Amino acid sequence: MTDPAAGPTKLGSGNYLKDRGYSDPAEMRVKFLLSNEIALAIEDKVLSQKAAAELTNMKQPDISRIVNGNVGDYSVWRLMRALSLLGRDIVIDIHQSSQERGDINTNIAPAKHVAGR
Amino acid sequence: MTSDDAVDIKEVVFLSRRVEEDYLSQPLDVVEGFDARITAVQNLRRLPARHHQALSGNAKGIEELRVFHDSNTYRTYYLANYDEVVILIDAGMKKSKKGGEIPEEQVARLLERKRQADQFYAGNRALLHERYNARRKRRELE
Prior knowledge:
The complex is a heterodimer. Chain A is mainly α. Chain A has five helices and no strands. Chain A has helices at residues 16-19, 25-44, 49-56, 60-68, 76-85. In chain A, helix 2 (25-44) packs parallel to helix 5 and helix 3 (49-56) packs across helix 4. Chain A is globular. The two termini of chain A are 33 Å apart. Chain B is an alpha+beta fold. Chain B is built from three helices and five strands; from the N terminus they run E-H-H-E-E-E-E-H. Classes of the chains: A mainly alpha, B alpha+beta. Chains A and B meet through helix 1 and helix 2 of A and strand 1, helix 1, helix 2, strand 3 and helix 3 of B.
């Protein structure tokens, strides 16, 4: 390869946030996916951040940080409540795991009223 | 094994050490913002239009993520047209010309890195697919 930027390419573990060094990768994955859904809900509803803040009982700077993906300081519950106030149902499904210790993850149903990317 | 071992749908690969260094040298809030968008991309989620753009013309196949921070726009470029992996090929603050066009020299760099990424993928496809199937199986069990 001629590009000097080309160094060894290493494979990830399949858990990106763990590879990135987050101490709580599964929790951050849930938070990041919730923040993306909040940003999408605000965009789908064509809301200003001010209007989104009023709808979710939050302050505008909080909405700005959440939309930008800076969600480390927000609890999963707070993010779920904001998303629900923006018109999304959230259901917690619990199944028997085939492993000794189970996984915590997120499944998001495709939106019915918005075309996929 | 703990719940923190739960896996993503696609894995993420930095094309080179330099791409990873460029990515990590951005302000912490910017890196976290990109981590959020990459988490959505690798788990097959749609992104808000403000956060994402697919390039066109001869750069087709390359996609751009954006994070807005302190009046600057930071951009990270990736390839998402592989089933098993998201390959990050460039990162950092890029001051676009008026109209949002990417400077020609940067397009040339992106195209060269896309070529390298395609080569990496072709050489590792079987392994990437095996790993993808293992993650899919684990997620189906959830």
